[in-house]
Amino acid sequence: MNTDFTDNQSIKSINFVKDVEQYSDAHNNRLTVSEVLNRDHTYSMKHVTFLLPAYNEEQSIGKLLKKVHKCRNSRVLVIDNNSNDRTAEIAKKSGANVLKERKQGKGYAVKTGFENIKSEFAVMLDADNTYEPEDARKLLKPLMEDEADVVLGSRLRGKREVGSISRVNLLGNYILSLFASLLYSNVSDVCTGYWAFKKDVIQQLLQDGINSDGFDLEAEMFSKVSKNNFRILEVPINYKSRLDTPKLNSINDGVKIFMRLLSNRLEMRKGIFK
User: Fold this and answer.
1) Looking only at Cα atoms, what is the longest distance across the chain?
2) Fold of 44-270
3) What is the pTM of this model?
4) DSSP state of 110
5) How far apart are CA 220 and CA 129, in angstroms?
6) What is the DSSP string of 202-257?
7) Are the beta carbons of 11 and 40 closer than 8 angstroms?
8) Residues 6 or more apart from 127 whose CB is under 8 A from it?
9) Residue spans per domain, the chain
10) Among the four 41, 71, 149, 181, which has the fewest Cβ within 10 Å?
11) Phi-psi bin for 207: left (phi > 0), alpha (psi -120 to 50), beta?
């Protein structure tokens, strides 16, 4: 196929999945990727919601949302989890829809976000600007082509900025991911905060219930999507360092994640999960 595009070439002649990036480069400032994708219902970004749970992220939320808004026509939800800084104010000024969750904990914030998802696809990423929104298309592509139901962005298979993950956290992540692989299904980065879902997966998670209130949320979601036999894929992503002090407590949260993986497996054996 000819990918040396001309001004008069019809969009209909373009394989929008394979060649959209080249088309966008060739027509910079004339036609965005989102506008090409919008010619087909399945691949349109207007059917995607970005979900950002946030707690005291005033240093990063504005920079992140500026990049998220490049995914034109998508909906952006910021779940402010009792921030005592300017997180919610900056998010509103940046054009995001801001919801409040008074119960403290990432799990509560994500649950509130899930309950407000109306689109066919959702992308969840942390609000600390460590993840690149442009990687979302890599997570969404397998969902939109019906090759997966859930896609995780793997930091351990991707490119990490020097110092973005400490040696202790890196070792802990390897151990926890190995444990999750033994109990459920193969995964390289069970603790990643970058996920993409089909809507029916979100509905199932809400039906099963989200019980985590902290950084064990991802372990709970992974165990439950595995239990429900959803198709899970991983794609490599880029990962950057935080602008401020990490909120994760390596030892305490590591133990909590380990226990969440184990307890959910035991509940599955007892038939508590329907």
Assistant:
1) 63
2) Spore Coat Polysaccharide Biosynthesis Protein SpsA; Chain A (3.90.550)
3) 0.81
4) H
5) 23
6) HHHHHHH-----STTHHHHHHHHHHHTT--EEEEEEEE---SS-----HHHHHHHH
7) no
8) 52, 53, 54, 55, 57, 60, 61, 64, 78, 87
9) 44-270
10) 41
11) alpha
- Tell me which amino acid residue 182 is: L
153-166 pLDDT, tens digit per residue, is 999 999 999 989 99
Report the alpha-carbon distance of residue 236 to residue 259 in Å, rounded.
26
Could you tell me which residues come within 8 angstroms of residue 108 by beta carbon, excluding any fewer than 6 positions away?
81, 101, 213
Q: Is the dihedral of CA 197, 236, 215, 87 positive or negative?
A: negative
The model's pLDDT over 100-145, given as tens digits with 9 standing for 90+, comes to: 999 999 999 999 999 999 999 999 999 999 999 999 999 999 999 9
| Tokens (6 digits) for 248 | 């994760």
Q: pLDDT, tens digit, for every residue of 214-262?
A: 889 999 999 999 999 999 999 999 999 987 776 777 788 889 999 999 9
With cut-offs at 50, 70 and 90, classify the pLDDT of residue 45: confident
User: Do residues 105 and 33 lie in contact, with contact meaning Cβ atoms separated by under 8 Å?
Assistant: no
